[in-house]
Amino acid sequence: MEKKGNKRECNTYRGISLLSHVGKLYGKILESRIKPIIEPQLNIAQFGFRKGKSCTDALF
Questions:
Q1: Do 14 and 3 touch, CB atoms closer than 8 A?
Q2: Which helix (H) or strand (E) holds 23?
Q3: Cross-referenced InterPro entries, in alphabetical order (predicted)?
Q4: Residues 30, 31, 32, 33: is their CA dihedral positive or negative?
Q5: pLDDT digits 0-9 by tens, 10-35
Q6: DSSP secondary-structure letter at 2?
Q7: DSSP letter string over 35-50?
Q8: pTM to 2 decimals?
């Protein structure tokens, strides 16, 4: 992104932070690798914080 001033100088431009996007991508990759290993080890009675499970599943 440019600032006011001479457009031919590098000092007149601002950097763009992509750190949050890189962090999200890293998290998704990490989750996709860990989930198949952890999921079979969880107790069948574990319903909290699991995708596709809810409190109502535990009631019935």
A1: yes
A2: helix 19-38
A3: RdDP_mobile_element (IPR052560)
A4: positive
A5: 777 777 777 788 889 999 999 999 99
A6: B
A7: HHHHGGGS-TT--TT-
A8: 0.51
